[in-house]
């Protein structure tokens, strides 16, 4: 049965992170409260095809008589529309094994993406019957999630790689997972420090009064820019230290938020973001 939860381990950030990636996103009603219990640690992404070009997000939320929904966290339609269906655990993986997953436990450790696609056949060449819009949405959503988890694309796998032997699964059909992973990696960009980048939310404490956003000027903004440039050179290395919170600063703030677990990606430095980056306060 679906149940209400508010556990920090669930990917409550899915909608924000996907939207920030520029995809067309639909939030399926009730997604934040849908799931078969809570995630354990999220280790990556698992890609599927539904087996039918017309399978809807609603059918993924609802499930089947023999398998109640949600059947995955995300659904990608053939026109590229991504629907967030659930925040909790979904029945998408079943039994199987993969090196960075505990055997038969992928549902509790991976975010499932169901793509409305027949799959064509187990031997069809890469991207046969995969519209550009759908494939692009798949690449972007996997990149957004992997980046959020501070992981490279090796943490995206196909159902067939996990459950090919155990269940005879061949989805996603007509997807060469190595090519998909290289496309995802190109979209992720560089992850310089996979182990250290994500961190849990920290108490806001002395940062309760901090509120910096586009248009604000002054020494505190200069300090923000200096820390972003010096501490996150791989995406803020060319930030100009001028004390003016402009588009470049906002983009760097968003990138910091995107890469930090528990932060809303809004480009605004409030108490939580300031605390997460240990912003040095300037009086
Ligand atoms: Zn599958």
Automatic annotation (TrEMBL):
Domain N-acetylmuramoyl-L-alanine amidase: from-to ranges: 30-173
Record's keyword terms, sorted: Cell wall biogenesis/degradation, Hydrolase
MF terms in GO: N-acetylmuramoyl-L-alanine amidase activity
EC number: 3.5.1.28
Pfam families the record matches: Amidase_2 (PF01510), PG_binding_1 (PF01471)
Lipid biosynthesis among keywords: no
InterPro entries (alphabetical): Amidase/PGRP_sf, Amidase_domain, NAMLAA_amidase_2, Peptidoglycan-bd-like, PGBD-like_sf, PGBDSf
An annotated GO BP: cell wall organization
Catalytic activity: Hydrolyzes the link between N-acetylmuramoyl residues and L-amino acid residues in certain cell-wall glycopeptides
Family assignment from sequence similarity: Belongs to the N-acetylmuramoyl-L-alanine amidase 2 family.
Name of this protein: N-acetylmuramoyl-L-alanine amidase
Organism: Mycolicibacterium chitae
Gene transcribed to yield this protein: cwlH
